[in-house]
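Just scan my protein:

——
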Amino acid sequence: MSAASSPFDWKIRVYYEDTDTGGVVFYANYLKFFERARTEWLRSFGFQQQRLADTTGAIFVVKSTSVDYLSPARLDDELRLTVVVEKLRNASIEFVQEAWRLPSGNGAAGEIDQEATLLARGRITVVCVDAASFRPQPIPAELLSRIKDAPAPARQEAP
């Protein structure tokens, strides 16, 4: 089933721990950023991952990822991460996610950006599995229904 949705937004700040010695975000950290945004997207539907595992035995595991890196993020940049459900199936979800540097962040050579800059675009597929056996299982019905039927989640900001 197809389920293209409006983007869910989550803002984060780039910290020193996210960067390499050149002050540029280490490429693998985009996957961590995308994971955090998907977790907050799930919370926007009223579901927390640990509670979901405890009550239904369902957990989500990443099946595949692909990321295109377009421009570097740097120390102290404010990023907007987006989450869009591209395909929703009974036991899996395919997401398209993007990382954008927001205006007024540090641009190249310390310049101030006047508009948001797309930094990375990823395609991530997660599969719902049984926490005990790691065998695929259907996404819990209540969550699947909320994803299909709920209006696009409200935009959120990191605390």
